[in-house]
Amino acid sequence: MTLDEETCYRLLKLVETKSDMSQRDFSRAMGVSLGKVNYCLNALLKQGWLKVRNFKNSKNKLAYAYLLTPKGIEQKACVTKRFLAKKYKEHKQIEDEIAALKIEAAALK
């Protein structure tokens, strides 16, 4: 399994806004498997983009909080720019496809 750009972006965004979510919560919010979230979090921890802290949650259980490191904040900006560029490219491709379909549909009349 590789750490794809979209998963990385979405996970970093969630960590930045909701650091006390569990891995299961991240999984549900992102619509990916728990295993994928675990793999990605561990990869980001190894890269030094995240750090993890223990805390007691409302059920008085020990839980983890994932926090962006200064390096993680910097890298999130880079990932966001690349993800945005990818989405712009996809948007342009969809616009081109719609234009071609309009021409095709007009020719069928």
From the coordinates shown, what is the CATH architecture? Orthogonal Bundle
Helix content percent band: 55-70%
For the record, give the distance between the C-alpha atoms at the N and C termini, rounded to a whole number: 48 Å
Strand content: 5-15%
CATH topology: Arc Repressor Mutant, subunit A
Q: Calculate the mean pLDDT score and round it.
A: 90
CATH class: Mainly Alpha
Give, in order, the helices and strands: HHHEEH
Which structural class do the helices and strands define?
Answer: alpha+beta
The overall number of domains is 1
Going by CATH, the homologous superfamily would be Winged helix-like DNA-binding domain superfamily/Winged helix DNA-binding domain
Radius of gyration over C-alpha positions, nearest whole angstrom: 19 Å
Uncertain regions: pLDDT < 50 for 5+ in a row? none
Coarse shape? elongated
Q: What is the tally of helical segments?
A: 4
> How does the major sheet shape up?
2 strands, antiparallel
Q: Tally of extended strands?
A: 2
Helix and strand layout, with pairings?
Blueprint: H1 5-17, H2 23-30, H3 34-46, E1 50-56, E2 62-68, H4 70-107
Antiparallel strand pairs: 1-2
Helix pairs in contact: 1-4, 2-3
InterPro entries: MarR_EPS, WH-like_DNA-bd_sf, WH_DNA-bd_sf
Protein name: MarR family EPS-associated transcriptional regulator
Organism: Candidatus Endobugula sertula (Bugula neritina bacterial symbiont)
